[in-house]
């Protein structure tokens, strides 16, 4: 480093040290601004993931349905599910619906995998327990009230159908088969006794179904047909969800993927408003930081009018004076940005844990952005007082006017 540069560095550091009380105030303003900026940047970038995870409590956000006369077999479903990244896939639950009777009253059966539905529908409130094996049933609250069913009761599913030459009667007890004496047609009143382990309460349409295992629905219907619908829960941004849906619809002919609008629309609306709020707060904080730094630098420059006048008398150019003051401000901005970046991570971590109950990941790129923004904000804040400083008339200043 040559002597001129060394002298320049000494002038800047000496100036900062001599006026450390005012510089500390400016530094604190920059640190506070950088801390909030860094923290909000982390939260802003992590909000889509956090919000998506929170909205998964309200159920699946994508459904798969058969296309036309297509069939959603297990293999077809697995092929569609492969389009979702494993790290974002919360779970998926196939449904098969059938009509049956309980106490001679019509009911709609929903065959599901009870382990998977606990992941895709965590909002389900069950009075009792979730079925864990065949011959157990979960009854919706509306069905339970209509049929006076309680947890622990035994219910009998009944299914009547005509027996043809294509019907497999190996699973039908002989006493369930009867022949119409007038027409000679053979019918069956197939039955299956189940234990009610719980009553489902959601306040929605889920209360209108009786939930059984796939094995039990195949037994009562003597059919192992394909699935009617698949609910998929994916913890991802709205943009990614629509991208996954488009890929499935472009590459698969037997099924169609659709968003659950009541979930995705609400998620998108809340996310947009939250991002707007974070952006507004960030802008306000940067403006306040700029005002505080500008005020402090104005006071510092006012104290140094004699120094500025003397330097101009000795031949210092306006450009050199501006560069010195600007470097002092940029140095404060750099240090404030570094400290604020570190504190901002802890600030974002605290907010995220208390609001979303989830931690944020450290992002080095945001540290660089915070430092650059801090330096730019400080530089802009210093420009106005610095431009007024170089317009000082040396003669008037040295005369004490």
- Quick one: biggest sheet? 6 strands, mixed, barrel
Number of β-strand runs:
11
Which geometry do the CA atoms define?
Answer: rod-shaped
Mean of pLDDT: 80
H/E series: HHEHEEHEEHEEEEHEHEHHHHH
- Give the count of helical stretches: 12
Give the number of domains. Answer: 2
Low-confidence stretches: none
Strand content: 15-25%
Question: In order across it, which strands form the biggest sheet?
Answer: 2-3-9-5-8-6
Radius of gyration: 36 Å
Distance between the termini: 39 Å
Q: Can you give the helix content as a percent range?
A: 40-55%
Main structural class = alpha+beta
What does it look like?
By secondary structure, the chain is of the alpha+beta class. The protein has 12 helices and 11 strands. The longest helix is centred in the last third of the chain and has 43 residues, at 261-303. The chain has a 6-stranded mixed barrel with strand order 2-3-9-5-8-6. The two termini are 39 Å apart. Helix content is 54%, strand content 19%. The radius of gyration is 36 Å and the shape is rod-shaped. The model has no long low-confidence stretch (mean pLDDT 80). Strand 7 and strand 8 (186-201) form a beta hairpin. The protein folds into 2 domains: 3-54 and 268-398, no CATH class; 60-259, no CATH class.
